[in-house]
Write a structure and sequence with these properties.
By secondary structure, the protein is α/β, with parallel strands linked by helices. The strands form 3 sheets. It has a 7-stranded mixed β-sheet. Strands 1-5-4 form a 3-stranded mixed β-sheet. The longest helix is centred in the middle third of the chain and has 26 residues. The two termini are 46 Å apart.
């Protein structure tokens, strides 16, 4: 095998077509066994298309490599861990299909025994998608039913790759086995699982959905909707707050991605991840409500209709395993940019805990922003993460009466302070967001100093202050809040908020007065302005 020529051609034009053309060039090959040994060495290449070429070569030469087939089978399993979408789509799946066609039951049995191995998370996708094509060509009834039974074992998986493989496999089989698959789908619906329903609904969007007919699809959707509505009702009843006298609905959803980019020079991170969409705490100043409007909700539904991302950990894992992410210098993720990752529903789902376990597995740094003492539940993971994590509490005031007005269902201040105490005893870095400072309400020097002194007593590592701004829907909500509780300040706020588009920020004189006192006096006096203790991302 002329390795130098192969690599130079791929470097000159890196694409699948180049790989296919090279395979047609018999002049670059020598003997099957020598070529195979050289191909194995190329699997370590960092070039995606070099690896694609190797897989295509193995697929083409499989019949002439009798003594190497056991090694090929092992390599197929190892190669399934390459998370590059192009590699999976253009390299592995068609080639695995070709090898499965040639190899028969021996390889199929070997792969099915490896499917549940957590070290090979992409293998189920590749196997289900590739083998469904193989048995489609045979269309043997017994083989099809055995394969469908195997599919049933994986339908509750929340692994996105597995789900994609299942969708493709079911669609492939259903094109020639409509009646049989309809029976299976009705049985699968009785599993009563949201991941199963996600796969079924995706299948209905493909060719099989058309072949199955409108009436069958409608019957299935009604059954799935009925189960989901009952489940949501029970969850919502369990976690609705009696104190708020507001009905809260929790809706389970499956997501494809978790990370969102944050372009702010004022923040030490560029990436955010939210386990939930919407937040029970109902803070008057929260500008996250805008995210709900994208879903067609009103401003007040942000705290009443909350979406639960039940596969959040798997979606995040898929993103942080990509070569682009692992080679990035800034991998710091903030949990809780527009929701609280430890709001009450987390007790039931433990999604944030699963995310932390995933981040610890890949040694990925994370900062957690919360108003909840539930975070102490995860002290065991946070201790293991050590310098890879900070916990940052939001504490704008120690006045519980005031907090009850602006953060209706957040943890009481006493519980937050107790959580800080426990985290610090465990050796975990803890910061505090003294945000927002409401002008003329909680901005008095004596009140600010008392808060800072208290935080110092609890051995907080650093404090980040900021003044209330009126971004997003917070302008509307704060205006309502001031009108209800502090009507005498309404005119003063209009005069104070004069900067920026739509008057979102306080005037510079007021801002300078507050920050001069905090940064030059109070925070400095108690040593809470040492931001070197803060976990860094782009500032490092």
């Amino acid at each position: 095998m002329n390795i130098d020529f192969i690599i130079s051609e791929i470097e000159r034009e890196p694409c699948v077509k180049t790989c296919k053309n090279l395979l047609k060039n018999n002049a670059i090959f020598t003997t099957p066994i020598d070529d195979f040994q050289q191909a194995m060495n190329l699997l370590d290449s960092e070039d995606e298309y070099v690896r694609i070429f190797v897989v295509m070569y193995i697929s083409k030469a499989y019949d002439s490599l009798d003594l190497q087939k056991e090694m090929i089978h092992k390599q197929l399993v190892l190669l399934s861990n390459d998370w590059s979408k192009k590699f999976i789509r253009y390299g592995l799946i068609p080639s695995v299909e070709a090898i499965l066609t040639k190899a028969g039951s021996e390889l199929s049995t070997y792969l099915t025994n490896k499917l549940k191995d957590p070290d090979y998370p992409v293998l189920p996708r590749i196997y289900f998608e590739a083998y469904s094509r193989v048995i489609m060509k045979k269309n043997n009834y017994k083989e099809v039913t055995v394969f469908l039974d195997l599919i049933g074992d994986y339908l509750i998986s929340n692994n996105l790759d597995t789900q994609q493989g299942l969708v493709s496999a079911i669609n492939n089989i259903g094109k020639k086995n409509i009646t049989l698959l309809q029976k299976y789908i009705l049985d699968w619906i009785e599993i009563k699982n949201i991941n199963t329903y996600y796969v079924i609904r995706k299948v209905f969007d493909l060719k099989f959905g058309e072949l199955a007919g409108t009436e069958f699809r409608q019957t299935c959707k009604e059954k799935m909707n009925s189960y989901e509505e009952e489940r949501i009702r029970l969850i919502s009843e369990k976690f609705s707050s009696d104190e708020s006298k507001v009905d809260v609905t929790y809706q389970e959803i499956i997501v494809s991605t978790m990370l969102h980019f944050i372009n702010s020079p004022m923040l030490p991170f560029n990436w955010g991840a939210n386990p939930y969409r919407g937040c029970l705490h109902a803070c008057e100043y929260c500008y996250g409500r805008t995210s709900h409007e994208f879903l067609g909700h009103t401003k007040d539904e942000f705290e009443r209709i909350i979406y639960v991302k039940i596969n959040a950990d798997k979606a995040l894992e898929k993103e942080i395993m990509t070569p682009k992410w692992t080679s990035s210098r800034n991998k710091l993720i903030n949990l809780g940019t527009v929701t609280d990752p430890y709001q009450q529903i987390e007790e039931n789902y433990e999604i944030t805990r699963k995310i932390l376990e995933t981040l610890y597995k890949y040694k990925n740094p994370v900062t957690i922003t919360t108003k909840s003492d539930l975070v102490i539940r995860d002290i065991d993971i946070l201790k293991k993460m050590g310098p890879l994590t900070n916990v940052v509490f939001s504490i704008p005031s120690l006045d519980q009466i005031f907090l009850d007005k602006i953060e209706k269902r957040a943890a009481p201040i006493a519980q937050r302070l107790k959580a800080i105490e426990q985290l610090k005893k465990a050796g975990i870095t803890v910061g505090v967001l003294m945000i927002p400072i409401f002008p003329y309400i909680n901005d008095g020097e004596s009140e600010l100093k008392y808060l800072i002194q208290t935080l110092a007593d609890y051995k907080v590592d650093y404090v980040i202050p900021d003044i209330l701004n009126l971004r997003g829907d917070s302008k509307y909500k704060v205006s309502q809040f001031i009108g209800q509780y502090y009507p005498e300040l309404a005119e003063a706020y209009k005069k104070l908020y004069v900067r920026g588009n739509d008057s979102l920020y306080v005037d510079k004189a007021y801002q300078k007065k507050i920050f001069d006192y905090l940064m030059k006096d109070a925070l400095k006096e108690y040593g809470l302005n040492d931001y070197s203790k803060m976990i860094k991302g782009k500032w490092s």
